[in-house]
Design goal:
- The chain contains three helices and six strands.
- With about 190 residues, the chain is of the alpha+beta class.
- It has a domain of about 55 residues: Nucleotide Exchange Factor Grpe, Chain A, domain 2.
- The protein has a three-stranded antiparallel sheet. Strands 2-6-3 form a three-stranded mixed sheet, with no helix packed on it.
- β4 and β5 form a beta hairpin.
- α2 runs antiparallel to α3.
Length: about 190
């Protein structure tokens, strides 16, 4: 019996040691988990991480602002160049008309044939009108139309020759022009009253 007792005691001691080892292991795991949780909740580390994130975002913001400012300057410069070069193109296209007018003046000064001079001036006029049309400039047709303050400027009122001409344009003293649908110059007209 003493042998069985001893064996029983040894088994109990081993079981107690194993139980103690398991408890120690569980305790160590619990402490490690607790320590990790405490490390993760460390407010100083969180603040440092947030400050680093804010600093990163500030840098990104500054880069974006710099890029936008560069884009804005480039756009303003390109717009100014377009305006400058747009008038250059229009003037270049008018030079042939000026050349034709100079030739017509030379012909007049030399005392050329009146009919050929009229024909030459008429050709120059047609060339100029075609140029205006290519630039989307059109004359405002006024005579016989209803008076429209958006298109016409009344120079004077004149008694209408018949009642149907009241409020209508009787005569156009100076032709008006539009570019696309915008009025460049109002037509100066005589309105029937």
């Amino acid at each position: 019996m003493p042998k069985k007792n001893k064996q029983n005691q040894n088994e109990q001691a081993k079981a107690a040691q194993q139980k103690e080892a398991l408890e120690n292991e569980a305790m160590n795991e619990e402490q490690q988990t607790k320590q990790k949780a405490e490390e993760e909740v460390d407010p100083e580390k969180i603040i440092a991480d947030l400050e680093a994130a804010v600093e990163h975002e500030k840098k990104e913001y500054m880069f974006l602002m710099s890029d936008f400012e560069t884009f804005r300057r480039r756009t303003v410069k390109e717009k100014a160049e377009l305006i400058k070069n747009g008038t250059e193109s229009a003037m270049r296209d008018l030079l042939p008309v000026v050349d034709d007018l100079e030739r017509a003046l030379d012909a007049i000064n030399k005392g050329g044939d009146l009919e050929s001079l009229k024909e030459g001036v008429n050709l120059i006029y047609n060339k100029f009108v075609k140029y205006l049309e290519s630039q989307h400039v059109t004359a405002i047709d006024s005579t016989g139309k209803d008076f429209d303050t958006d298109l016409h400027e009344a120079v004077t009122m004149f008694p209408a020759p018949d009642p149907s001409m009241k409020g209508k344009v009787i005569d156009t003293t100076i032709k008006g022009y539009k570019i696309n649908d915008k009025v460049l110059r109002h037509a100066k007209v005589v309105v029937g009253s």
